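Input record (one chain):
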Amino acid sequence: MKQQKQISWHRTNVRWLFLGLTCLFQVGCCICIDFPSVLASQIQSTFNVGQKDINYLFSIYSMPNIILPFFGGIIIDKIGVRSAQLIFCSLLVIGQGLCVKGAQEQDFNLLKLGMLFLGLGGEVCLTVAQSALLTKWFLGQEMSLAFGVQITFIRVGSVIGANWLPKVYIWYGNSFSACMMFCFAFVLITMLTSFVQSILDKKSDKRDKEQMNQQELTQLEQQPSVNCSDVKEFKFDYYLLSISCVCSYSAFLILQSNGIRMFQIRYNLTLTQQTFLYTLPYFISATVTPFIGYFIDKIGKRPIFLIISGNLLLLSTILFSKNVDCLIQDQCFSLVLLAQFINGIFFALYAPVIWPCIPLCVNANSQGTGFGIIGSIQNAGLTIFPIIVGRILFNENAISYQHMIYFLGFITFLANISNIIIYFYDIYHDNKLMKPTLKLSEYEVVSEQEELTDNTRVD
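The corresponding structure, as predicted from the sequence alone:
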């Protein structure tokens, strides 16, 4: 007769509390990381720099993450996600502190150094650690929904930053320092949230281990640890996902990073219109993404949705490449509105599809490494591509922004090719990405608990 066991917190409403903490964490991180996008003009006037220097800030942020998420993923799998997250979150505090100091002294080099530290901590926290934690708490359940909600609140952070940072700048007498202090307050909230998450996760692990018998504990201790050689076991579909991720995110995020200035210079739009159009994809994503995540959990078909989302991104790029008479302001606004609306649908669809695919393509004990490698590849693109775009925008005018769109269109085309190959590869390799999420039973007994410990690494 099987022994009935109490329900793991991973199978109760506590997991929704944990998801809420994850969302708060994402908002705080994103407000700090996105400030060069929404304060590009203010940075230019404060430090007497150009738009190419703004793109260099993004490259500096992404540069350490060409390598760091890979090793960060291994660190997470080695020392545990809780300890790793607290270490990298402390780098966020240091980075934002340097940005505050750089703003106060009007030292652009300090701002660059701050962005470097934000990069050292931000991507591992946002992409690797939080993704590994969500996989741990939602494995075999509403994983696409959880990732969709998490990504939604990253975009909520972007919307808050876009709407409030320019206002803070004006309220405090055109003070860039005030904006950096505003960001610093949010990064402290992020650090506090990280502590609460760690406490909750530790109590959950302790509670689960108390329910295990000696045989289960022995199996858990003997679970093979991750090492670099495990990367050789990653299949072709994992690397196809990496290509899709780096190209799709690079095209979208670089467009957004330069969007406000492009709306001003190429499309002759007002400040209110610029802010609205910049935040529109994030509003759409924040509204629609959780529902799409829930829907994908139910029906699967992830490669098909990757193809659809890639074509939406390509369509928006084609619209942006269209020549229009921007002396007629309404005509330009309508075109950009349509393109940004399509971008919002793309982002709402793509994000909850791509990230839950990763745990399906790697072993359970290598999930941190899996997220880390994709993070490294993504940041390689977000380091190199903004430098190229910075060179394209060296002479900032309407024509140079059109050339930027041509370049982003080429990147988007590569993403679409990768998405199509993923579809055909999955057809001939068990259709694991096409299947809906398999939900575990609500009540667990000894044999099922063994299955759970095989799929969940306890720090």
